[in-house]
Amino acid sequence: MIMPVTTTRTSPDWPCQVKAPGSYDWERSATRWLRELVPARYGGYPAMVRHPVLLARHAQIQVQQEIRVARTALQTARSDLPRLGMPESVIEHTIKLYAAELLQLQHIARSVRAVSEALVGRGGGR
């Protein structure tokens, strides 16, 4: 019996590396993408691979921690980096780097949330 392939519209936050929900093999593409967001040892745990919702949950926590780290690095750069002997040009470049990274991490967090919601809605917890 051939099962129909159904797709749903994806949000602008949907990661391009993940197939649209409901399309053939989309959960596998979601799992691959999510594994890239967590430390390698977590992505290798069988429970994380068998239960994409569990992997998505861990990825959400991981990205939120990275956001906190980037915020702290950004907020403390002006006071900490001069004490480390960094020249002003390096400090300014570093601040821009942290600000850009923070924006990227916030986008990734929204993407993880979108994938997680789709997995939960499709019974991706298995």
Radius of gyration using CA atoms only: 18 Å
Mean pLDDT: 90
Please give the share of residues in helix. Answer: 55-70%
Number of DSSP E strands: 0
Question: What letter string, H or E per element, gives the SSE order?
Answer: HHHHH
Note the gap between the termini. 22 Å
Low-confidence stretches: 1-7
Characterize the largest beta sheet: strand count, sense, and whether it forms a barrel: none
Structural class: mainly alpha
Proportion of residues in extended strands: under 5%
Question: Could you list some keywords that capture this structure?
Answer:
126 residues, mainly alpha, single chain
Short structural description:
The protein is mostly helical and 126 residues long. Helix content is 69%, strand content 0%.
Topology of this protein?
Layout: H1 26-37, H2 40-43, H3 46-50, H4 52-83, H5 88-121
Helix pairs in contact: 1-4, 4-5
Provide an overview of this structure.
- Helices cover 69% and strands 0% of the residues.
- The radius of gyration is 18 Å and the shape is elongated.
- The chain is an all-alpha fold and 126 residues long.
- The protein has helices at 26-37, 40-43, 46-50, 52-83, 88-121.
